[in-house]
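Why should sequence recovery work at all? Because a backbone constrains its sequence more than one might expect. Tight turns favour small or flexible residues, buried strands favour hydrophobic ones, and helices have their own preferences. The token representation captures these environments compactly. In the example below, the structure is given first.
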């Protein structure tokens, strides 16, 4: 543009046409050129065409002349007198003979052209110019050669009427430029400017570290607007109205924002150019992916050919696109704006009519259901229930549980009778994936409407699993017992299935007594090869048999074989045995088959993500946290445990069955990293710092909370927790020390309190049971405790055997502990060379596990043994504790301190303290420096500061010390 204006100012006449669809910035670019006119010595004459003035003769010419009165006065002959120029207004037709020299009939613009005055003629929206003015413009453009005149005009693509005069004028322009969507860089710049305005409701500060718009936000804006400057600015105005900021969170909401000003501006504009265009755009907005020309015409009651003409014109105008016969909006934000501008009653009627048309045309159920979902009133049509049920099944195949849930809820508004029971059953099974409490409600209603015996048994199974997940095992058992009685009275085979499931839940809940033991003996027997059983029944029986063997601490190899067989059963649906899905993994973990257990956990997590099951995701994370702790992966354990706890929230009204397991893993991991205050705060946030609920998962919480209290200097309170853990396990017949080695932990506390006889009795019992089970980790832990309690040579032999046993297991953390204790014993026996060897290996293993406390202990003992171990890293990435690292990564991901606190169940002040330590250790300044640091590779070794403990814990009211 600069070169064109410069050439015109030098006497070489120029013309340029700026083309683009509506909203692409044609007017803005024209104004920019107009601002430059004076720099090149050009006098500016401007005009803007309007559709409403298209029939006003010389409308554009008058606007141009209005800005040239002074110039014309200097160029006109004195004889003309005041006002004479208006009389000479008529412009010769493009093909008329030139007036004779000296003739008075000379158009004022022609007189300016002949006067040699440097000019810039700027005309906006040339497509709406009147014909008379177009002839004048064409007359001038044919005579621009060697004149100091620049003609700059804009035209909207697809909005030009079929006027031959306009077509000839457009073809006369020497230069033409087509505007396209803005780049990501330009979009980011406009966003930054828009949200840097002082006083925004969002509180966005342009000088903050978060001032640059998030790349995901920028890309979402470009996708929604096609890079149109006008649409971007309209979108940003709506965002500011809603208090949104240009961050990753806003990117997910852009599709829901409706700048109605866009519809108010563009719909009348398109409708003037192509009568009926507004109605067609409304139809396309309503149909949303199902808009074919034929359906649009039927929806609006239009002639098919006429509708096709309008659609074609809107495609050329850049408002719509057409692919594979389906018409869509070229810019999604225009659709939301158009949809929001349709009056609710008309929108409701259009969606209902669209659903009817799509159903009659045989469209996929999901497309029809999408229309039904947007109808606010019930239609009372017989086919809607079937369509919504079918559509829910289709989206479930893609793992979209949220959409399936919406279809089924809408179906319940339409349907009654048996059809309603079918919807409730499907909805209950889906709710198991996200909301077990809602699942129970829907399934109970479905049971009341279901007459079929097999279907009733299936509903009872799902209900029992939902209740189990909610930590209500007594209700779950009652539901199953009622089903057993009902099936037996009808002589149905479902009775054995429900009975086996009841036995498995009792085993899982550590609620086995002599009566249950006798009643469930047959349910745990393997099915004969010729038996016809479902995958679910086989999974239940195999899991039950494996869990019984594990509980008793007997037949380890058989239990492992049964667990492997159970894992091979096909999972046929989203809710399939959801509460007992991880039972085989528990057995494998207790049998030290940790690699296989980890592999199966990964597969379960992948399936949970694919199916969209938040419940299964929680269960899988909780299980993997336990497996990772057993294998010595402290950092991974903490990550999984926190991921499992996120859905529960900081103050759950009730505890899920997996809350205890996940919280136990959190406490265990924080114990290893030395973050004792953080562990106590986590317990307090979940209301688990005093009374602990009954249930299998909470025995592990008691175990690790007891260890935490001992580490905090409260051995009596810790011992009470450990003994209560043992009481609960013993009452359920849970004898296997591989589940929880509470005896050896309690023994060490007894010994510290001077109660040696009690300590020795516990260790002897645990070692005997561990050897009987054959688990290396449990045996190694018991041997380590025995070595610490024994005196003289017996202690050394026990510790050496512990190391040998643990060497053959995947329990790296327990091996590091045994090596540390053996190294300490060697140092005290003045065998410094051997001591240093064990301690160096212990420190290395502890650092690999992320066990900062144990690594520091090994290092201090190495120093005492005369070694010079490398210093623990106090700066760099490896100096961060797992909690600090997680906070840092969330800060880099642009979560606010409040959001981080909510995800980690801590206060904002705690997050601020973590970040200050992160900044110090990484030697960075603020969040911007943190992002730069994580963008490049860092190295270092492990290190950790051990924070103080909380105050003396409240005594647990149900704990027993003896």
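From this structural description, the recovered sequence reads:
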């Amino acid at each position: 543009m600069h070169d064109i204006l410069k050439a015109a100012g030098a006497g070489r006449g120029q013309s340029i046409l700026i083309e683009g669809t509506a909203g692409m910035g044609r007017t803005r670019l024209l104004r920019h050129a107009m601002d430059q006119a004076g720099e090149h010595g050009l006098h500016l004459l401007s005009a803007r065409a309007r559709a409403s003035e298209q029939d006003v003769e010389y409308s554009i010419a008058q606007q141009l002349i209005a800005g040239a009165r002074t110039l014309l006065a200097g160029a006109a002959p004195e004889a003309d007198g005041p006002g004479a120029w208006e009389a000479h207004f008529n412009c010769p037709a493009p093909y008329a003979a030139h007036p004779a020299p000296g003739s008075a009939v000379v158009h004022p613009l022609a007189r300016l052209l002949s006067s040699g005055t440097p000019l810039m003629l700027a005309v906006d929206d040339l497509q709406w110019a009147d014909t008379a003015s177009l002839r004048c413009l064409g007359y001038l453009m044919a005579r621009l050669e060697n004149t100091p005149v620049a003609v700059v005009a804009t035209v909207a693509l697809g909005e030009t009427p079929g006027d031959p005069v306009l077509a000839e004028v457009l073809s006369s322009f020497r230069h033409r430029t087509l505007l396209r969507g803005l780049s990501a860089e330009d979009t980011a710049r406009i966003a930054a400017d828009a949200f840097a305005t002082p006083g925004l409701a969002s509180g966005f500060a342009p000088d903050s570290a978060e001032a640059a718009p998030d790349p995901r936000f920028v890309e979402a804006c470009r996708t929604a607007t096609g890079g149109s400057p006008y649409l971007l600015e309209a979108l940003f105005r709506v965002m500011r109205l809603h208090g949104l900021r240009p961050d990753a969170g806003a990117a997910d909401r852009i599709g829901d924002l409706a700048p109605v000003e866009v519809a108010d501006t563009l719909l009348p504009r398109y409708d003037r150019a192509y009568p009926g265009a507004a109605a067609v755009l409304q139809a396309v907005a309503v149909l949303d992916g199902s808009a074919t020309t034929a359906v649009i015409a039927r929806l609006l009651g239009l002639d098919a050919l006429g509708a096709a003409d309008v659609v074609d014109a809107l495609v050329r105008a850049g408002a719509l696109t057409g692919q594979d016969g389906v018409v869509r909006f070229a810019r999604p934000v225009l659709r939301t704006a158009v949809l929001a501008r349709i009056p609710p009653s008309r929108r409701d009627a259009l969606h209902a009519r669209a659903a009817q048309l799509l159903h009659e045309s045989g469209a996929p159920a999901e497309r029809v259901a999408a229309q039904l979902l947007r109808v606010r009133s019930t239609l009372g049509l017989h086919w809607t229930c079937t369509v919504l049920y079918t559509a829910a099944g289709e989206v479930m195949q893609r793992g979209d549980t949220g959409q399936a849930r919406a279809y089924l809820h809408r179906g319940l508004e339409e349907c009654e009778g048996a059809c309603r029971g079918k919807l409730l059953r499907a909805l209950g099974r889906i709710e198991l994936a996200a909301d077990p409490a809602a699942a129970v409600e829907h399934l109970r209603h479905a049971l009341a409407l279901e007459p079929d015996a097999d279907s009733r048994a299936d509903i009872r199974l799902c209900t029992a699993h939902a209740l189990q997940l909610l930590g209500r095992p007594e209700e779950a058992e009652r539901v199953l017992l009622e089903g057993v009685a009902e099936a037996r009275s009808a002589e149905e085979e479902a009775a054995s299935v429900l009975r086996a499931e009841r036995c498995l839940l009792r085993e899982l809940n550590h609620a086995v007594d002599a009566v249950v033991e006798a009643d469930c003996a047959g349910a745990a027997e393997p099915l004969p090869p010729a038996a016809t059983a479902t995958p679910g029944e086989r999974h239940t029986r195999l899991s039950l048999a494996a869990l019984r063997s594990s509980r008793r601490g007997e037949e380890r190899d058989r239990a492992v074989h049964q667990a492997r067989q159970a894992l091979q059963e096909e999972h046929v649906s989203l809710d399939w045995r959801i509460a007992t899905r991880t039972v085989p993994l528990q057995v494998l973990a207790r049998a030290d088959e940790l690699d296989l257990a980890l592999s199966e956990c990964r597969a379960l997590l992948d399936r949970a993500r694919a199916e969209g099951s938040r419940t299964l995701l929680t269960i899988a994370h909780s299980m993997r946290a336990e497996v990772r702790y057993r294998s010595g992966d402290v950092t991974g354990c903490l990550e999984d445990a926190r991921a499992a706890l996120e859905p529960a929230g900081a103050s759950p009204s009730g505890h899920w069955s997996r809350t205890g397991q996940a919280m136990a893993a959190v406490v265990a991991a924080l114990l290893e990293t030395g973050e004792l205050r953080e562990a106590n705060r986590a317990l307090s946030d979940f209301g688990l710092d005093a009374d602990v609920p009954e249930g299998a998962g909470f025995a592990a919480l008691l175990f690790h909370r007891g260890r935490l209290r001992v580490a905090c200097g409260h051995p009596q309170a810790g011992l009470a927790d450990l003994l209560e853990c043992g009481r609960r396990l013993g009452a359920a017949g849970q004898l296997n020390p591989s589940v929880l080695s509470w005896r050896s932990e309690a023994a060490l506390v007894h010994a510290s309190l001077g109660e040696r006889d009690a300590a020795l009795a516990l260790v002897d019992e645990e070692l005997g049971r561990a050897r009987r089970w054959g688990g290396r980790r449990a045996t190694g832990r018991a041997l380590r405790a025995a070595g610490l309690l024994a005196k003289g040579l017996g202690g050394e032999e026990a510790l050496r055997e512990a190391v040998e046993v643990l060497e053959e297991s995947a329990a790296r953390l327990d091996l590091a502990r045994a090596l540390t204790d053996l190294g300490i014993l060697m140092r005290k026996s003045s065998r410094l060379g051997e001591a240093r060897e064990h301690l160096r290996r212990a420190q290395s293993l502890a650092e690999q596990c992320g066990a900062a406390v144990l690594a520091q202990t090994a290092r201090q003992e190495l120093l005492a043994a005369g070694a010079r171990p490398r210093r623990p890293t106090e700066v760099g990435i490896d100096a961060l504790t797992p909690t600090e690292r997680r906070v840092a990564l969330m800060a880099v991901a642009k979560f606010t301190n409040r959001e981080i606190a909510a995800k980690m169940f801590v206060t904002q002040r705690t997050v601020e303290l973590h970040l200050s330590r992160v900044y110090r250790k990484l030697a960075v300044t603020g969040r911007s420096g943190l992002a730069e640091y994580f963008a490049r590779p860092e190295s270092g070794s492990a290190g950790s500061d051990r924070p103080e403990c909380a105050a003396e814990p409240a005594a647990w009211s149900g704990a027993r010390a003896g």
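A few observations help interpret the result. Residues 43 and 119 are 5 Å apart (CA to CA).
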